[in-house]
Amino acid sequence: MNMIDAVNHKLALLDEQSLTRLRRVVESPCAPRVVVGGRSMLAFCSNDYLGLASHPRVVAALREGAEMYGAGSGASHLISGHSLAHQLLEDRLAEFVGEHLESPRALSFCTGYMANLAMLTALGADGDAEIFSESLNHASLIDGARLARAQVKVYPHADVQALGALLASSNATSKIVVTDSVFSMDGNLAPLPEILALCERYNAWLVIDDAHGFGTIGASGRGALEHFNLRSQNVVYMGTLGKAAGVGGAFVAAHSSMIELLIQRARPYIYTTAAPPALAHALLTSIDIIGSDEGASRRAHLQALIAQLDRDLHLKRWERMVSRTAIQPIIIGSNEEALRIGAGLYGKGLWVPAIRPPTVAAGTARLRLTLSAAHTLEDVAQLTAALNELEDLR
């Protein structure tokens, strides 16, 4: 078997297991209604939770940023790529989430994936470090833990007692607990108050990936720390800016000394070109909207959409997971049926992705519905009617 034949064999095996992934080309701006292959679709698959990706004020700010700063940054942050726009954004983010941190400072990144790699490789670089990782953590956290070259111990999902036992038995000089706040495939929240209490008891860092919480939970949209009213110098907090904030990038907020350590030691930060300053300029407007009355209204509308799902979705065979967040998964079971139902919805003009292993465990293939404040009650009514009808068809 030559090399290309070997590659094709691997692809054929994926296809046999209904694990082949498909890219679709979107021909319109990010919104609930998009054009795909010349066809108008009602989409429930975007992480644009507050509907800011096409918000007129954010779009105008992006245009203004390009006029002020140009198209690109030209270098890494530590060479010449750190613009005034980046600095203003970091200052604004530190202020926005800072009341939940000691001596807060923020650092911006091109992506959440990169931010997670940076945090864990920098924190885990000490020779005697142990990372305690939640079993359902995002792939970027798993990869960051692997690249850190520290000993990694995985604790069961949301099992505070098991985590406590692991921390109690650890003799590591540096202990790092890492968890999602809102789990991306389940939509539920980690028990962060209990986890933070353990971290403070055992002198451990708590790395929180709030990718799906920032902007959407907390009274002012400040995310999981605000939602649970947490404050600690032990917290290293990551929020993404391409989901609820509607633009792109990510940030880490923590004690100012921790941020300085990342600047000096985090390779994914040091050795990459800074994101275009225009994005940072646009994000200043996104953060203003998130924290305003308009942001509160958009979060309230999200909860109204979830309540409509509660009322109108009548499942008998499938399982809708318990979630009060914009992520609303429906467990189908087999890969084949999940793909069939996804295709059935697509045929009705509804775009809902079928999520399969290895993203989720075998036997738990699901539809991952994501709601946006830009959806209407009528949009959700159309979705629930289609789901109820398709579940009845075997």
Walkthrough of the structure:
The chain has helices spanning 3-16, 56-69, 77-81, 84-97, 112-123, 139-147, 160-169, 192-201, 224-228, 256-265, 267-270, 277-290, 293-312, 335-347, 377-392; strands at residues 33-36, 39-43, 104-109, 129-134, 151-155, 174-180, 204-209, 235-240, 250-255, 319-320, 327-333, 350-351, 354-355, 365-370. Helix 2 runs antiparallel to helix 12 (277-290), helix 4 runs parallel beside helix 12 (277-290) and helix 7 (160-169) packs parallel to helix 8. The strands form three sheets. The protein has a seven-stranded mixed beta sheet with strand order 3-9-8-7-6-4-5, with helices on both faces. The chain has a four-stranded antiparallel beta sheet with strand order 10-11-14-13. A three-stranded mixed beta sheet has the order 1-2-12. The chain is globular and about 55 Å long. The longest helix has 20 residues, at 293-312. The chain has two domains: 22-51 and 293-392, Aspartate Aminotransferase, domain 1 (Alpha-Beta Complex); 56-290, Type I PLP-dependent aspartate aminotransferase-like (Major domain) (Aspartate Aminotransferase, domain 2). By secondary structure, the protein is of the alpha/beta class. The protein is built from 15 helices and 14 strands.
Can you give the helix content as a percent range?
40-55%
How many E strands?
14
Number of helices: 15
Strand content: 15-25%
List low-pLDDT spans: none
Shape: globular
CATH class membership of the largest domain: Alpha Beta
